[in-house]
Design goal:
Blueprint lengths: L12 H14 L3 E3 L3 H5 L12 E3 L6 H27 L10 H27 L11 H12 L13
Antiparallel strand pairs: 1-2
Helix pairs in contact: 3-4
């Protein structure tokens, strides 16, 4: 293996201009700001905040705005899923030698990440829901014993706990 080295590559002004022009063309950014409140009929406490949604899709009609917002809303749970997969399940640290083994491990960890995400979102939406809706008695009692270091209660605690 070669030792690391530093390489200096000269960049001319012409190249900088081409790169800047390409970036501006590729990111023909559209913004959706205050016009969205009346469109979505948003009112009430906390709706007076200004926000920007940057986007590379053209916005010609109100339906385009709504579609872009739907896409952005759908993107967030996907990002959270992959964050759980990478940081919670630590899939980037898996060092399996064969492709088939890695594929099986990733499928297993994806189920775990999905379940973590499901329980997290369910706990936010229905915090008073008893945890035995999602976990078996053995599962929640084992976790309680480890986390609280005390005997579990007779009734299943709510998901928010």
């Amino acid at each position: 293996m070669r030792p690391p080295r530093t390489v200096a590559i000269p960049v001319t002004d012409n190249e900088k201009a081409r790169v800047k022009d390409r970036i501006q063309r590729e990111l023909a950014t559209w913004t959706v700001q205050d016009e969205i409140r009346p469109l979505l009929r948003i009112s009430g406490p906390g709706t007076d905040r200004n926000w920007l949604l940057f986007n590379s899709l053209p916005v010609d009609h109100d339906q385009d705005v709504l579609r872009i917002i739907d896409l952005d809303v759908a993107r967030w749970p996907i990002e959270v899923f992959f964050r759980v997969l990478k940081t919670g399940c630590k899939v980037e640290e898996i060092q399996l030698e064969k492709k088939a083994r890695l594929k099986r491990a990733l499928m297993f960890y994806q189920v775990i990440a999905w379940r973590i995400l499901y329980v997290t979102f369910l706990g936010r939406e229905c915090p008073d829901l008893p945890c035995d809706v999602v976990f078996s008695e053995a599962e929640w009692k084992s976790v309680w014993k480890i986390v609280e270091q005390d005997d579990p209660p007779k009734a299943a605690p709510p998901l928010e706990e």
